[in-house]
């Protein structure tokens, strides 16, 4: 009997392929969106975590303002060179300290130009970021002190500007400054946030401040503790030292933040998960609309097939059998939508994951959930039309033209 | 009194539709006995109550008052599911408009009542083919209704009605939509089913020629039985 009912449902769906397909679209898009979103989200999170862990767990970020989506870094006072000196001189158990200021600038070589992230820093940057130099050298002390126009370039910059030429020894123009290329950075790939980490130019902090930024501000400071175990203590020391230097009285909140990788990751995932919830809600609405579509089409189907229902009732079908027939049809319809949605979602996620170079992480729970939810939609929205069919008066149904 | 109750027994059955001024008495208190094995023609002008009577006998409709007993069981006390089972196991229907499922082959149409009996597919197919054979359509089993003539469609409908071996075959103007020659073939088929298999046949018709095939002719008028006579022309 179950087999017969299934067969019947498939027949009914096949009779109206186009209509069934259009009905399904809502479910397909809803389920597909959920699956794609969650899969891409998982991949992104995994990628962020992987990259963060590569940087090492003994790295600390010091930024003005507060951490998180609503940080007030624009109003908080930036750091300056004396802060960096103080950190370097007074902290113990520290491997390296790197001041960082950056902004987006246009660089030119020959007839090529490109907008890149220009970072002003010192040699501590290479240690804290675990960054290797494939060709050329680090900054000389004299270059750092004198604010000379030298730079190291990332792999993407080399590829786009120099092609097959050797960049080391060449001169590029960074905004208005002519700059000698002294080294090439090892490729790092995309960051967890989707930025190309190789599309950068590094120059001495002082050069950046004087000739590009026109101030002596330092946007952030990287500190790497000597060992992982000492990270928490170093973090405390930095907080104490900077409160002192920035004259923050007891009881007042910090106007800067010191965060380790884990804290940065949680701040980032908080943003990601609120995005996921928002997008999930949109997908949920789409599923609801899909369900209403199914109900509509099932009502049409019941009206269209009133006579058929009359015949079935006349030859001995019980109410339950007619109810099951239409309910199963609705569920089969929405399950087909669910399966197509899963396929579509995974396909989309697969493509996006490939483009974004993030790992493809299949969450079986969400696939099952989306699948089960689409079946539930079939039951919920199919029940009303099915009940209507089952309650038809056989004589009236038979007279229906 | 007979030991067996009659197959169909109406006692003061009324049926009215509408309310107030628009109240219509389709049946105004009908008493009727039909025994197993009879071939009964029900005649009468439109609105005389003959179709309402058939619908009540077929348990597709319920009386407003009075009682209808089928094999001694008061049908008025049955719920919708029990009525469905009554139809499924004891009754077969043939309609004026054939009422076959479109885009469904003849044999699948005939199988339909057996599906609701939960019969296994192989046995179902065999019985459906037998039924088609008995109406002379074995070679049309895989045709869909729109590939069949009116007479063939009606014979498929008859096959569907008898595939369950019903006690009663209810035919509502079975020849209403077919030509005279085909009508004769269908009437001969019904008469043969009555004679050979002992199926009780109730047939609504307004063609006297067709009524002549029945053993008993009941005339309806204004919701009441006007006349109820044995048909002298049928020797059996």
From TrEMBL, chain A:
It is a multi-pass membrane protein. It holds the Pfam family FtsX. InterPro entries: ABC3_permease_C, MacB_PCD, Macrolide_Exporter_MacB. It comes from the Bacteria. Keywords: Cell membrane, Membrane, Transmembrane, Transmembrane helix. Residues 281-394 form the ABC3 transporter permease C-terminal domain. Residues 20-239 form the MacB-like periplasmic core domain. It is found in: Cell membrane. This is FtsX-like permease family protein. One of its GO terms (cellular component) is plasma membrane. The chain crosses the membrane at residues 21-41, 277-302, 322-346, 366-384. One of its GO terms (molecular function) is transmembrane transporter activity. Belongs to the ABC-4 integral membrane protein family.
Automatic annotation (TrEMBL), chain B:
Residues 8-236 form the ABC transporter domain. It comes from the Bacteria. PANTHER family: ABC TRANSPORTER ABCH.1 (PTHR24220:SF86), IMPORT ATP-BINDING PROTEIN (PTHR24220). The keyword ATP-binding applies. SUPFAM superfamilies: P-loop containing nucleoside triphosphate hydrolases (SSF52540). InterPro entries: AAA+_ATPase (IPR003593), ABC_transporter-like_ATP-bd (IPR003439), ABC_transporter-like_CS (IPR017871), ABC_transpr_LolD-like (IPR015854), MacB-like_ATP-bd (IPR017911), P-loop_NTPase (IPR027417). This is ABC transporter ATP-binding protein. Keywords: ATP-binding, Cell inner membrane, Cell membrane, Membrane, Nucleotide-binding, Transport. Belongs to the ABC transporter superfamily. Macrolide exporter (TC 3.A.1.122) family. GO terms for molecular function: ATP binding; ATP hydrolysis activity; transmembrane transporter activity. CDD domains: ABC_MJ0796_LolCDE_FtsE. One of its GO terms (cellular component) is plasma membrane. It comes from Pacificispira spongiicola.
């Amino acid at each position: 009997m179950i087999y017969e009912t299934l067969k019947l449902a498939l027949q009914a769906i096949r009779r109206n392929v186009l209509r069934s397909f259009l009905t399904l679209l809502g479910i397909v898009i809803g389920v597909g969106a959920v699956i794609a979103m969650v899969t891409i989200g998982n991949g992104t999170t995994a990628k962020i975590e992987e990259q963060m862990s590569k940087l090492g767990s003994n790295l600390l970020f010091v930024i003005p303002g507060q951490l998180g989506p609503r940080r007030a870094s624009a109003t908080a006072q930036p750091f300056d060179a004396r802060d960096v000196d103080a950190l370097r001189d007074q902290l113990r158990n520290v491997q390296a300290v790197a001041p960082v200021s950056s902004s987006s600038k246009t660089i030119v070589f020959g007839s090529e130009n490109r907008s890149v992230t220009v970072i002003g820093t010192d040699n501590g940057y290479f240690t804290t970021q675990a960054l290797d130099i494939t060709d050329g050298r680090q900054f000389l002390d004299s270059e750092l002190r004198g604010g000379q126009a030298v730079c190291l370039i990332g792999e993407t910059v080399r590829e786009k500007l120099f092609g097959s030429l050797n960049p080391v020894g060449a001169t590029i123009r960074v905004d208005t400054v002519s700059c000698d290329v002294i080294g090439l950075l090892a490729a790092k790939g995309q960051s967890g946030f989707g930025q190309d980490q190789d599309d950068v130019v590094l120059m001495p902090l002082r050069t950046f401040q004087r000739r590009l930024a026109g101030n002596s501000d330092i946007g952030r400071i990287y500190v790497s503790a000597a060992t992982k175990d000492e990270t928490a203590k170093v973090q405390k020391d930095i907080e104490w030292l900077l409160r002192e230097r920035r004259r923050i009285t007891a009881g007042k909140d910090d106007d800067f933040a010191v965060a380790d990788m884990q804290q940065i990751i949680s701040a980032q995932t908080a943003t990601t998960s609120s995005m996921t919830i928002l997008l999930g809600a949109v997908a949920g609405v789409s599923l609801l609309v899909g369900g209403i579509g199914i109900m509509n089409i099932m009502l049409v189907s019941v009206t269209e097939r009133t006579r058929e229902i009359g015949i079935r009732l006349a030859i001995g079908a019980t109410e339950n059998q007619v109810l099951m027939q239409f309910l199963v049809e609705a569920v089969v319809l929405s399950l087909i939508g669910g399966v197509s949605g899963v396929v579509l979602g995974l396909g989309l996620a697969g493509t996006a994951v490939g483009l974004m170079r993030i790992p493809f992480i299949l969450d079986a729970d969400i696939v099952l959930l989306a699948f089960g939810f689409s079946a539930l939609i079939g039951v919920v929205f199919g029940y009303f039309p099915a009940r209507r069919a089952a309650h038809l008066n056989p004589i009236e149904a038979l007279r229906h033209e | 009194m007979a030991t067996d109750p009659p197959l169909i027994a109406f006692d003061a059955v009324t049926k009215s539709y509408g309310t107030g001024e628009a109240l219509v008495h389709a049946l105004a208190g009908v008493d009727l006995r039909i025994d197993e094995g009879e071939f009964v023609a029900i005649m009468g002008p439109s609105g005389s109550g003959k179709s309402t009577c058939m619908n009540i006998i077929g348990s597709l409709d319920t009386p407003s008052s009075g009682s209808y007993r089928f094999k001694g069981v008061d049908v008025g006390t049955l719920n919708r599911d029990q009525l469905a089972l009554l139809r499924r196991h004891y009754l077969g229907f043939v309609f004026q408009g054939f009422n076959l499922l479109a885009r469904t082959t003849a044999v699948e149409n005939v199988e339909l009542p057996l599906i609701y009996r939960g019969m296994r597919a192989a046995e179902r197919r065999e019985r459906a083919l037998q039924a088609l054979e008995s109406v002379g359509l074995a070679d049309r089993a895989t045709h869909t209704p729109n590939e069949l003539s009116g007479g063939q469609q009606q014979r498929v409908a008859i096959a569907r009605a008898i595939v369950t071996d019903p006690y009663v075959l209810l035919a509502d103007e079975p020849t209403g939509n077919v030509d005279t020659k085909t009508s004769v073939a269908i009437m001969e088929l019904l008469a043969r089913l009555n004679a050979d298999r002992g199926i009780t046949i109730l047939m609504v018709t307004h063609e006297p020629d067709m009524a002549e095939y029945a053993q008993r002719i009941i005339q309806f008028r204004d919701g009441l039985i006007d006349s109820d006579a044995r048909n002298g022309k049928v020797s059996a």
